[in-house]
Amino acid sequence: MGTHTSEATLIDGAAVAAGLHSELRSAVENLVERGLTPGLAVVLVGNDPASSVYVRNKIRRSVEAGLRSFHHELPSTTSETDLLSLIDRLNSAHDVDGILVQLPLPSHIDAQKVTAAIDPAKDVDGFHPMNVGKLSLGGGALVPCTPLGCMLLIKGVRSQLAGLNAVIVGRSNIVGKPLAQLLLRENCTVTVAHSRTEDLPSLCRRADILVAAVGQPELIRGDWIKPGAIVIDVGINRAEHEGRQKLIGDVDFAGARAVAGALTPVPGGVGPMTIACLLRNTIDAACRRHGVSSPIGNS
Ligand SMILES: NC(=O)C1=CN([C@@H]2O[C@H](COP(=O)(O)OP(=O)(O)OC[C@H]3O[C@@H](n4cnc5c(N)ncnc54)[C@H](OP(=O)(O)O)[C@@H]3O)[C@@H](O)[C@H]2O)C=CC1
Ligand SMILES: Nc1nc(=O)c2c([nH]1)NC[C@@H]1CN(c3ccc(C(=O)N[C@@H](CCC(=O)O)C(=O)O)cc3)C=[N+]21
After folding, report:
1. How would you class 91 by CB atoms within 10 Å of its CB: exposed for 0-12, middle for 13-18, buried for 19 or more?
2. 171 is in an annotated binding site
């Protein structure tokens, strides 16, 4: 069949996220008028520089949106017991609607245990077993922010996904697995690949929707991509370039751009959507907790 010559459409996640932020800002204004100011608590343990940058962005964005923001920075030597007791306090704090504990946690702390200690109604990351279970059963969950952001970008390109082959490279609990549930819900045929997958290039070539969430710079090459495919690059890899820090995705951007139908850049793709979806989940959680109808559309 015909050769594919046109360049992929760039999916401008930063622009989509900016649009979401302005919707969220009005939604918060509306809620504040009705006496409800949604509150987000962000907990950072230790001083990993990348985590600090993300946490600062999350706080800045939530303040811009009009949310109440609570910031807890704990030293890397914090014990699991102390972290759990902070979570207990946040669970019972009336003005806290969302709790986010930034990952990764120091290795002496059991992240699963911490996640399970968060009130599922305040679990704006969607990592609590209750929300994971609800997502898999099909309703009522707080949905993890990055997969939610990916879905909004994919559906912005193409609203009807039924029957498409979706390949997700990466099976983490925060991206790959929950995204598989969301694509399945849209009636895609979903394959989740990982480090033990055989012949990854051939598998990727069958994908109408290809999502890379691996953490390996430019693993996915242009010639692994089906012409016209929607390619979502979740990867954030830091590299030195001419003495400066540069972010690189899991997809060879230039190679993919010549083949794909639509493609997200790094930075400015999925990352900004993750933060917008976090704020959206916080507003959602606040409305549910207070029995108020949500002023934002559901998806
Ligand atoms: N933009 C955003 O908002 C976000 C970006 N990220 C970024 O996304 C990337 C993935 O993060 P996360 O989901 O936490 O990843 P994890 O590090 O938890 O998991 C990586 C996954 O990739 C798989 N994998 C590793 N190497 C290969 C390979 N060579 N071939 C095939 N599969 C491989 C692993 O397989 P196995 O299970 O077999 O080990 C694993 O399933 C990172 O770059 C991270 O920084 C993450 C969250 C949010
Ligand atoms: N409990 C928890 N929840 C998370 O959602 C979570 C986490 N822990 N730990 C780490 C990962 C990673 N993550 C990102 C969020 C925003 C950008 C982002 O905004 N990226 C910008 C660039 C930012 C920069 O310049 O570094 C972009 O891609 O354009 C990236 C990555 C959320 N995560």
Report:
1. middle
2. yes
Query: Looking up tokens 């972290």, which residue turns up?
Result: 83
pLDDT at 159: 97
What pLDDT, on a 0 to 100 scale, did the predictor assign at position 299?
Answer: 47
103 Cβ inside 6 Å of ligand 2: yes
What is the per-residue pLDDT for 282? 98
Cβ 267 vs Cβ 10: under 8 Å? no
227 SS3 class: coil
Q: Which residues of the chain have pLDDT under 50?
A: 1, 299
Residue whose C-alpha is closest to residue 260's, from 213, 214, 212: 212
Distance CA 39, CA 41 (A): 7
Pocket test for ligand 2, best of 101, 118, 127, 236 (most atoms within 8 A of CB): 236
Alpha carbons 259 and 262: distance in angstroms, whole number: 9
pTM above 0.95, yes or no: yes
Q: Which residues are catalytic?
A: 58, 102, 125
Instruction: Give the pLDDT confidence score for residue 295 in this predicted structure.
Output: 87
Question: What's the CATH fold of domain 144-272?
Answer: Rossmann fold (3.40.50)
Every domain of the chain with CATH number 3.40.50.720 lies at 144-272
So what's the pLDDT on residue 241?
A: 85
Where, residue-wise, is CATH 3.40.50.10860 in the chain?
34-122
**47-72 per-residue burial string, b: 16 or more CB within 10 A, e: under 16:** ebeebeebbeebbebbeebbbbbbeb
CATH class in words for 34-122: alpha beta
Q: What is the pLDDT of residue 3?
A: 60
Ligand 1, residues 105, 150, 172: which to mutate, most atoms within 8 A of Cβ?
172
Q: Record the tokens describing residue 182, joined without a space.
A: 């969301």
Q: What is the pLDDT of residues 100-128, one digit of tens each?
A: 999 999 999 999 999 999 999 999 999 99
